[in-house]
Amino acid sequence: MERRVKHQENTIRSYEKQIADLSAQVARQEQLKQTTREQEQCNTEMKQIRDLCQKDKDTLKNELNSIEMSYSDRYQESSLSSSEEEEVTFLLRLKPSPTPPTRRRKNIIQPQANVITTPKGWDVVIERRDPEISCANSSSSCSSPVKQQRFSFDKKNRRECAQQDEKNKEEIPPPIPPRFKPSAPPPEPIENNYGWPPINQSTACRVLKKIRETGSAEEAARSGRPKTVTGEDKALDMMLSIQETLTQSSRTLALAMDFNVSHQSVKNLFKKQKLHPYKMKLVHELNEDDLIEELNFVS
User: Fold this and answer.
1) pTM above 0.85?
2) How far apart are CA 248 and CA 246, in angstroms?
3) Which of 33, 158, 183, 270 could be joined to 254 by an S-S link, Cβ 3.0–4.6 Å?
Protein backbone atom coordinates (compact mmCIF):
# COMPACT_ATOMS: atom_id res chain seq x y z
CA MET A 1 0.00 0.00 0.00
CA GLU A 2 2.75 2.42 0.85
CA ARG A 3 4.43 1.77 -2.50
CA ARG A 4 1.19 2.50 -4.37
CA VAL A 5 0.74 5.76 -2.47
CA LYS A 6 4.28 6.86 -3.27
CA HIS A 7 3.83 5.96 -6.94
CA GLN A 8 0.63 8.01 -7.14
CA GLU A 9 2.33 10.98 -5.47
CA ASN A 10 5.16 10.83 -8.00
CA THR A 11 2.74 10.72 -10.92
CA ILE A 12 0.81 13.68 -9.50
CA ARG A 13 4.03 15.69 -9.21
CA SER A 14 5.02 14.87 -12.79
CA TYR A 15 1.57 15.98 -14.02
CA GLU A 16 1.90 19.23 -12.07
CA LYS A 17 5.28 19.92 -13.72
CA GLN A 18 3.83 19.28 -17.18
CA ILE A 19 0.91 21.61 -16.43
CA ALA A 20 3.35 24.36 -15.28
CA ASP A 21 5.43 23.98 -18.47
CA LEU A 22 2.33 24.16 -20.66
CA SER A 23 1.10 27.28 -18.85
CA ALA A 24 4.52 28.94 -19.35
CA GLN A 25 4.44 28.12 -23.09
CA VAL A 26 0.92 29.56 -23.38
CA ALA A 27 2.07 32.78 -21.66
CA ARG A 28 5.02 33.09 -24.05
CA GLN A 29 2.79 32.62 -27.09
CA GLU A 30 0.43 35.30 -25.82
CA GLN A 31 3.36 37.70 -25.34
CA LEU A 32 4.59 37.01 -28.89
CA LYS A 33 1.11 37.65 -30.28
CA GLN A 34 0.91 40.92 -28.39
CA THR A 35 4.32 42.07 -29.69
CA THR A 36 3.37 41.19 -33.27
CA ARG A 37 0.16 43.20 -32.90
CA GLU A 38 2.11 46.18 -31.61
CA GLN A 39 4.56 45.93 -34.52
CA GLU A 40 1.71 45.83 -37.02
CA GLN A 41 0.17 48.91 -35.43
CA CYS A 42 3.52 50.75 -35.58
CA ASN A 43 3.96 49.80 -39.24
CA THR A 44 0.51 51.08 -40.13
CA GLU A 45 1.14 54.36 -38.30
CA MET A 46 4.49 54.80 -40.09
CA LYS A 47 2.82 54.22 -43.46
CA GLN A 48 0.21 56.86 -42.68
CA ILE A 49 2.91 59.37 -41.66
CA ARG A 50 4.89 58.69 -44.87
CA ASP A 51 1.83 59.20 -47.01
CA LEU A 52 1.10 62.52 -45.30
CA CYS A 53 4.71 63.69 -45.78
CA GLN A 54 4.62 62.75 -49.46
CA LYS A 55 1.40 64.67 -49.93
CA ASP A 56 2.91 67.73 -48.23
CA LYS A 57 5.99 67.51 -50.47
CA ASP A 58 3.87 67.31 -53.59
CA THR A 59 1.81 70.31 -52.56
CA LEU A 60 4.93 72.36 -51.78
CA LYS A 61 6.50 71.46 -55.14
CA ASN A 62 3.34 72.49 -56.99
CA GLU A 63 3.23 75.81 -55.14
CA LEU A 64 6.91 76.51 -55.89
CA ASN A 65 6.44 75.69 -59.57
CA SER A 66 3.46 78.00 -59.79
CA ILE A 67 5.41 80.84 -58.12
CA GLU A 68 8.36 80.33 -60.48
CA MET A 69 6.11 80.33 -63.51
CA SER A 70 4.42 83.55 -62.41
CA TYR A 71 7.79 85.28 -61.83
CA SER A 72 9.18 84.07 -65.16
CA ASP A 73 6.11 85.40 -66.98
CA ARG A 74 6.49 88.78 -65.30
CA TYR A 75 10.22 88.91 -66.15
CA GLN A 76 9.54 88.10 -69.80
CA GLU A 77 6.90 90.80 -69.99
CA SER A 78 9.25 93.36 -68.45
CA SER A 79 12.23 92.31 -70.61
CA LEU A 80 10.30 92.83 -73.86
CA SER A 81 11.38 96.41 -74.63
CA SER A 82 9.90 98.39 -77.48
CA SER A 83 11.87 100.57 -79.88
CA GLU A 84 10.63 103.75 -78.18
CA GLU A 85 12.05 102.79 -74.73
CA GLU A 86 15.46 104.33 -73.92
CA GLU A 87 18.47 102.20 -73.10
CA VAL A 88 19.87 102.90 -69.61
CA THR A 89 23.30 101.66 -68.47
CA PHE A 90 25.18 102.15 -65.23
CA LEU A 91 28.90 102.49 -64.59
CA LEU A 92 30.89 101.68 -61.46
CA ARG A 93 33.74 104.08 -60.74
CA LEU A 94 36.31 103.91 -57.93
CA LYS A 95 36.73 107.04 -55.87
CA PRO A 96 39.07 107.51 -52.89
CA SER A 97 37.21 107.77 -49.61
CA PRO A 98 37.47 111.11 -47.77
CA THR A 99 40.13 111.24 -45.09
CA PRO A 100 38.78 111.65 -41.54
CA PRO A 101 39.31 115.04 -39.86
CA THR A 102 42.36 115.44 -37.66
CA ARG A 103 40.47 117.10 -34.83
CA ARG A 104 37.27 115.96 -33.22
CA ARG A 105 34.28 117.88 -34.48
CA LYS A 106 30.58 117.62 -33.90
CA ASN A 107 29.71 117.46 -37.58
CA ILE A 108 30.34 114.01 -39.08
CA ILE A 109 31.07 113.48 -42.76
CA GLN A 110 28.21 111.37 -44.08
CA PRO A 111 28.52 109.50 -47.39
CA GLN A 112 26.35 110.45 -50.34
CA ALA A 113 23.27 108.48 -51.33
CA ASN A 114 24.79 106.99 -54.50
CA VAL A 115 28.11 106.03 -52.87
CA ILE A 116 28.85 102.57 -51.45
CA THR A 117 31.61 102.61 -48.84
CA THR A 118 34.16 99.79 -48.94
CA PRO A 119 36.66 98.75 -46.22
CA LYS A 120 39.62 99.08 -48.62
CA GLY A 121 39.66 102.88 -48.45
CA TRP A 122 37.91 103.27 -51.83
CA ASP A 123 34.29 104.17 -52.63
CA VAL A 124 32.24 102.73 -55.50
CA VAL A 125 30.23 105.46 -57.27
CA ILE A 126 27.24 104.41 -59.41
CA GLU A 127 26.76 106.71 -62.42
CA ARG A 128 24.06 106.66 -65.06
CA ARG A 129 25.27 106.55 -68.63
CA ASP A 130 23.37 108.26 -71.44
CA PRO A 131 22.32 106.18 -74.48
CA GLU A 132 23.92 108.69 -76.87
CA ILE A 133 27.38 108.06 -75.41
CA SER A 134 26.85 104.29 -75.60
CA CYS A 135 25.79 104.56 -79.24
CA ALA A 136 28.82 106.72 -79.99
CA ASN A 137 31.08 104.11 -78.39
CA SER A 138 29.50 101.28 -80.38
CA SER A 139 29.68 103.07 -83.75
CA SER A 140 32.97 103.44 -85.63
CA SER A 141 32.54 107.16 -86.44
CA CYS A 142 32.11 109.10 -83.17
CA SER A 143 32.15 112.87 -83.18
CA SER A 144 32.60 113.47 -79.42
CA PRO A 145 35.62 112.01 -77.58
CA VAL A 146 34.91 109.07 -75.29
CA LYS A 147 36.01 109.27 -71.67
CA GLN A 148 38.26 106.38 -70.68
CA GLN A 149 37.76 104.55 -67.41
CA ARG A 150 40.25 105.32 -64.71
CA PHE A 151 42.43 102.50 -63.36
CA SER A 152 43.44 102.45 -59.73
CA PHE A 153 45.79 100.18 -57.78
CA ASP A 154 43.98 98.25 -55.09
CA LYS A 155 45.36 95.64 -52.69
CA LYS A 156 44.98 92.81 -55.21
CA ASN A 157 46.98 94.59 -57.93
CA ARG A 158 49.68 95.54 -55.43
CA ARG A 159 49.95 91.93 -54.26
CA GLU A 160 50.31 90.73 -57.88
CA CYS A 161 53.05 93.30 -58.54
CA ALA A 162 54.90 92.21 -55.40
CA GLN A 163 54.71 88.55 -56.47
CA GLN A 164 56.05 89.44 -59.91
CA ASP A 165 58.95 91.33 -58.32
CA GLU A 166 59.77 88.31 -56.15
CA LYS A 167 59.79 86.05 -59.24
CA ASN A 168 62.16 88.44 -61.02
CA LYS A 169 64.46 88.45 -57.99
CA GLU A 170 64.53 84.65 -57.90
CA GLU A 171 65.56 84.49 -61.57
CA ILE A 172 68.64 86.64 -60.92
CA PRO A 173 71.59 84.32 -60.07
CA PRO A 174 73.28 84.91 -56.69
CA PRO A 175 76.68 86.62 -56.70
CA ILE A 176 79.78 84.44 -56.65
CA PRO A 177 81.40 84.42 -53.18
CA PRO A 178 84.94 85.84 -52.99
CA ARG A 179 87.72 83.30 -52.81
CA PHE A 180 90.59 83.58 -50.37
CA LYS A 181 94.00 83.73 -51.96
CA PRO A 182 96.43 81.09 -50.64
CA SER A 183 99.42 82.34 -48.70
CA ALA A 184 101.77 80.37 -50.97
CA PRO A 185 101.14 78.59 -54.28
CA PRO A 186 100.82 74.83 -53.72
CA PRO A 187 103.19 72.57 -55.65
CA GLU A 188 100.31 70.28 -56.75
CA PRO A 189 96.62 70.98 -57.44
CA ILE A 190 94.44 70.21 -54.42
CA GLU A 191 90.68 69.94 -53.86
CA ASN A 192 90.36 73.08 -51.73
CA ASN A 193 91.22 76.11 -53.86
CA TYR A 194 90.04 78.75 -51.38
CA GLY A 195 93.24 78.69 -49.32
CA TRP A 196 93.63 79.23 -45.60
CA PRO A 197 91.52 81.93 -43.93
CA PRO A 198 93.31 84.68 -42.01
CA ILE A 199 93.67 83.95 -38.25
CA ASN A 200 94.86 86.25 -35.53
CA GLN A 201 98.38 85.53 -34.23
CA SER A 202 97.35 85.79 -30.56
CA THR A 203 94.67 83.12 -30.94
CA ALA A 204 97.13 80.80 -32.67
CA CYS A 205 99.66 81.26 -29.86
CA ARG A 206 96.94 80.56 -27.28
CA VAL A 207 96.02 77.31 -29.03
CA LEU A 208 99.66 76.28 -29.26
CA LYS A 209 100.03 76.92 -25.54
CA LYS A 210 97.08 74.64 -24.82
CA ILE A 211 98.53 71.96 -27.09
CA ARG A 212 101.86 72.24 -25.27
CA GLU A 213 100.13 71.86 -21.89
CA THR A 214 97.90 68.92 -22.82
CA GLY A 215 100.28 67.15 -25.21
CA SER A 216 97.76 66.61 -28.03
CA ALA A 217 95.55 68.74 -30.21
CA GLU A 218 92.37 66.79 -29.45
CA GLU A 219 92.62 67.42 -25.70
CA ALA A 220 93.17 71.13 -26.31
CA ALA A 221 89.51 71.50 -27.29
CA ARG A 222 87.33 72.90 -24.54
CA SER A 223 85.38 70.17 -22.73
CA GLY A 224 82.04 70.75 -21.04
CA ARG A 225 81.28 73.85 -23.12
CA PRO A 226 78.89 74.28 -26.05
CA LYS A 227 80.43 74.29 -29.52
CA THR A 228 80.83 78.00 -30.26
CA VAL A 229 82.78 79.33 -33.20
CA THR A 230 85.60 81.39 -31.74
CA GLY A 231 89.07 82.39 -32.82
CA GLU A 232 90.63 79.58 -30.80
CA ASP A 233 88.46 76.95 -32.49
CA LYS A 234 89.42 78.29 -35.91
CA ALA A 235 93.08 78.24 -35.00
CA LEU A 236 92.76 74.67 -33.68
CA ASP A 237 91.12 73.56 -36.92
CA MET A 238 93.94 75.20 -38.85
CA MET A 239 96.59 73.41 -36.79
CA LEU A 240 94.89 70.06 -37.33
CA SER A 241 94.73 70.73 -41.06
CA ILE A 242 98.47 71.51 -41.00
CA GLN A 243 99.08 68.09 -39.47
CA GLU A 244 97.03 66.38 -42.17
CA THR A 245 98.71 68.25 -45.06
CA LEU A 246 102.35 67.97 -44.06
CA THR A 247 103.30 66.90 -47.58
CA GLN A 248 102.57 70.41 -48.85
CA SER A 249 105.80 71.86 -47.57
CA SER A 250 105.40 75.27 -49.19
CA ARG A 251 102.09 75.95 -47.46
CA THR A 252 103.21 74.71 -44.04
CA LEU A 253 106.37 76.80 -44.29
CA ALA A 254 104.39 79.90 -45.20
CA LEU A 255 102.03 79.35 -42.26
CA ALA A 256 104.92 78.76 -39.88
CA MET A 257 106.58 81.97 -41.04
CA ASP A 258 103.33 83.95 -40.73
CA PHE A 259 102.55 82.84 -37.17
CA ASN A 260 106.10 82.59 -35.77
CA VAL A 261 105.60 79.06 -34.44
CA SER A 262 108.20 78.01 -31.88
CA HIS A 263 110.22 74.76 -31.87
CA GLN A 264 108.29 73.30 -28.96
CA SER A 265 104.92 73.93 -30.62
CA VAL A 266 106.12 72.26 -33.83
CA LYS A 267 107.26 69.21 -31.87
CA ASN A 268 103.93 69.01 -30.06
CA LEU A 269 102.09 69.31 -33.34
CA PHE A 270 104.11 66.52 -34.90
CA LYS A 271 103.47 64.16 -31.97
CA LYS A 272 100.05 63.30 -33.32
CA GLN A 273 101.43 62.56 -36.81
CA LYS A 274 102.77 59.13 -35.64
CA LEU A 275 106.16 59.54 -37.21
CA HIS A 276 108.90 56.98 -36.93
CA PRO A 277 110.53 57.06 -33.45
CA TYR A 278 114.00 57.43 -35.01
CA LYS A 279 112.80 60.43 -36.99
CA MET A 280 111.24 61.96 -33.88
CA LYS A 281 114.51 61.44 -32.03
CA LEU A 282 116.33 63.33 -34.77
CA VAL A 283 113.78 66.14 -34.48
CA HIS A 284 114.41 66.40 -30.73
CA GLU A 285 118.18 66.38 -31.25
CA LEU A 286 118.07 69.23 -33.78
CA ASN A 287 119.29 72.45 -32.22
CA GLU A 288 119.16 74.68 -35.26
CA ASP A 289 117.71 78.14 -35.02
CA ASP A 290 116.19 78.00 -38.49
CA LEU A 291 112.65 76.59 -38.26
CA ILE A 292 112.36 76.11 -42.03
CA GLU A 293 115.13 73.48 -42.05
CA GLU A 294 113.41 71.58 -39.23
CA LEU A 295 110.10 71.56 -41.08
CA ASN A 296 111.76 70.44 -44.29
CA PHE A 297 113.51 67.63 -42.41
CA VAL A 298 110.27 66.38 -40.87
CA SER A 299 108.16 66.70 -44.01
Assistant:
1) no
2) 5
3) 183
